[in-house]
Structures are given as structure tokens and as C-alpha cells.
Amino acid sequence: MKKRGIILMLTGMLALGTLVGCGNKNDEGTATSGEPQKIKIGATIYKYDDSFMSYVRRAIEKQTEGKAELIMNDSQNDQAKQLEQIDTMIAKGVNVLAINLVNPKAAPSVIEKAKKEDIPVIFFNKEPEKSAMDSYDKCWYVGTESKESGVLQGKLMADDWQKNKEKWDKNKDGKLQYVLIKGEPGHPDAEARTKHSIEEVKNAGIEVEELAIDTGMWDAGKATEKMDAWISKYGDNIEMVVCNNDGMALGALASLEKAGYLKDDSKYVPIYGVDAIPEVLDKIKEGKIAGTVLNDAKNQGKALVELSVNVASGKDLLENTEWKLDDKKAVRVPYVGINKENITVGEDAYK
Ligand code: BGC
Ligand code: CA
Predict the structure, then answer these.
(1) Torsion-angle region of residue 329: left (phi > 0), alpha (psi -120 to 50) or beta?
(2) What is the pTM of this model?
(3) Is ligand 1 within 6 A of the CB of residue 193?
(4) Alpha-helix runs per DSSP H in 42-106
(5) Residue 212 near residue 179, CB atoms below 8 Å
(6) Which ligand is nearest to the CA of 250?
(7) For 147-295, which CATH class?
(8) What CA dihedral angle connects 45, 320, 133 and 17, to 10 degrees?
(9) What is the DSSP letter of 95?
(10) Ligand 1 pocket test target in 53, 57, 145, 219 with most atoms within 8 Å of CB
(11) What angle, rounded to 10 degrees, do the helices at 146-168 and 188-203 form?
(12) What is residue 135's DSSP assignment?
């Protein structure tokens, strides 16, 4: 780095009121001054009690080791609590905020706080609206392309239906009668998965009939309750169970097994999820869940930490990383459709 560059960098850092980056090496490979000050990342998880997010949290913790100090908060599904946690982290002098919103619509309140203190924010898992993203030049998103998970789930469902139509079309009416357990309404992943999974099946030329749809709020216990009610109402008319995530697929499976389903071929009901969490991969191997879509927790955690460390130390967001930004200021980790045939892809991602 040229001398002028170093001076500019130092001035910039002093203006930010932080000495982060003091331990950076110059071109000769010697430290520029003093002890390196650790970068402080202030993070929130919308609630620890969410199976997929527990894997993302672990990935973040692992990735941060040796690179930064991490302040991690459980927002307990309470947006007001999360905003207080953000105030506290700002008071503690965090250099970057990594925020898994409780309510995707609350992004403007978070941005307002961060902007006042000139702290960059990287949202993850719950994507804010474009207007919010555009309101602050130092905010970005790490996650997925929600639509892709729906399309991939729908593809698995359509392929399997075509192959097994003889057996799976129980009432022989040529139509696929399904029930759908949705994630949190208004969550971009829940909305897109619900729409595109079924659309993909229709695009494959399969006629469908929706017996029931309701939210299970991403939660296994709530999904079991829904499924219990639907089994008593529709019983054997249910030809497929579509779930917006794996937690709810496990909940639906528990309900179906309790009612005597899935114990042999004649009582088989195909269930689909999204995430590819290890518990579901085991059920796929046992033949109890038909398919899922890998939601790559490990790489989402990795991208989030790499970007956070970069911006916190005044570097370019994407410096020395494999990630790209799209036109919505987002880094998107790809989804992969998973069934018995490529189960190792899911297993490798969650190792
Ligand atoms: C995951 C869900 C999770 C939700 C939390 C989604 O991307 O698929 O399992 O509950 O994010 O926001
Ligand atoms: Ca049918």
C-alpha cells in the first residue's frame, strides 16, 4: 500500500472512531502499528429455537474463530427485543452488525440505528425489501434466491410423481391431491416456496388439487398439529405432503407415523421439505421422507462472516472471497435438490 493510501486509511478509521485494522500488514509485511484490535461482530439470530438457524449459528461461530470477536444474541422471535439488542451492541462498539431479522419488514428500524453510527449492516436469512436495502449504502444481504428452493422442490415432486403415479395416485383420478404446510407468512422463503413448488409441478403437466394449506410457522410441533387435523379430515385422500422446511416435514412425519402411515409400502405418503438438515437426511435414507432441498447453512455462515470481517476492517466487501453481489446487493448461496440418489451432497454440506 502506498504511503498516501495508508494515511487515508488511518484517517478514515479514526473518523469511524475505531482502530480496527491497525494490525494490518503493509507491503513490506510488517505491522503498521501497535497491537491488532479485534474486530467486533454484533449478530442476532431471530430465535435459537429454529432447527435450520441453529446450523447457521454454528457455522457463524466456527467461521468467526480466530478472526473476530462475536457477540451473538437470541432475539427469541421478538422484534422489539432484537432492536434493544442492537442498541446494546452499538453501545459496546461493534464494527459491523449481522442481523437475522425477526420480522423481515423491520429492516428500516435497524438501518436507522446503524446509519446514525455509520456501522455497516449485513442482513441474512430474512431478506429485507428492496426499498430498505436501497436506503443505506452500507447494507447488504447474505442468503439464497428464495424462488430457486421452490422450483427445485417442485422438480423433485414432479419427477417422483411421474415415476410412481400408479401407486401414488391413490384415488386414480389422475390428479395429485396435496396438503401444504407453509412457513411464516410474509417470509420471502415461505411465500416463494409455496408458489413455485406447486407451479413447477403444474409446469410438468401434472394436474393438482390442494386439499389444505396452512402455516406451521417453520415449527415441527405446529406442523404435527396441522397434520393431525388433516389426517382425520382427509385420511387416505392425501397423496403428498409439501412442507416449506425440514423442521415441519419432520413434524408431519411424526403425525403420519402416529396415524399408522409409512409403516409399509401400502401406507406410504411422500413428504418433501427444504433445508437438508441431518435429521431429515437420515429419514431420506430410511425412505420416510422423499426429498428436500439443500439450504447451505455452512456457506451462508461463511459468506456472512467473510463479508462482515471485510467491511469491519475497511476493506472491500468481497475482497479475497469467492462471492458475487447481485443487483439487489445480495450474495446468494445456491440451493441443491436432494433425494436418496445424491444424499452425500447434503451430508457433506452439514459436516
Ligand atoms: C429455512 C427455515 C427457517 C427459516 C428461518 C428458512 O430459510 O428454510 O428452516 O425456519 O429460514 O427464517
Ligand atoms: Ca389423485
Answers:
(1) left
(2) 0.89
(3) no
(4) 51-64, 79-91
(5) yes
(6) 1
(7) alpha beta
(8) 80
(9) S
(10) 53
(11) 40
(12) T
69-125 tens-digit pLDDT: 999 999 999 999 999 999 999 999 999 999 999 999 999 999 999 999 999 999 999
The CA 178 to ligand 2 mean position distance, Å, reads: 9
- Distance CA(46)–CA(123), nearest Å, equals 11
The rounded distance, in Å, linking the Cα atoms of 301 and 89 is 20
pLDDT higher than threshold 70 for residue 156: yes
Please check whether the domain covering 40-143+297-333 is classified as CATH 3.40.50.2300. Answer: yes
* Range(s) within the chain of domains with CATH label 3.40.50.2300: 40-143+297-333, 147-295
Say which residue the cell 385422500 belongs to: 237
Probe ligand 1: pick from 47, 144, 184, 189, max atoms within 8 Å of CB?
189
Report the separation in Å between the CA atom of 147 and the middle of ligand 2, taken as the mean of its atom positions. Answer: 26
Residues 6+ apart with CB under 8 A from 149: 189, 192, 193, 196, 274, 293, 295, 335
100: DSSP letter: -
Q: Does the C-beta of 245 come closer than 6 Å to ligand 1?
A: yes
DSSP labels for 288-304? SS-BEEE--HHHHHHHH
Distance 120 CA to ligand 2 centre (A): 52
147, containing H or E segment: helix 146-168
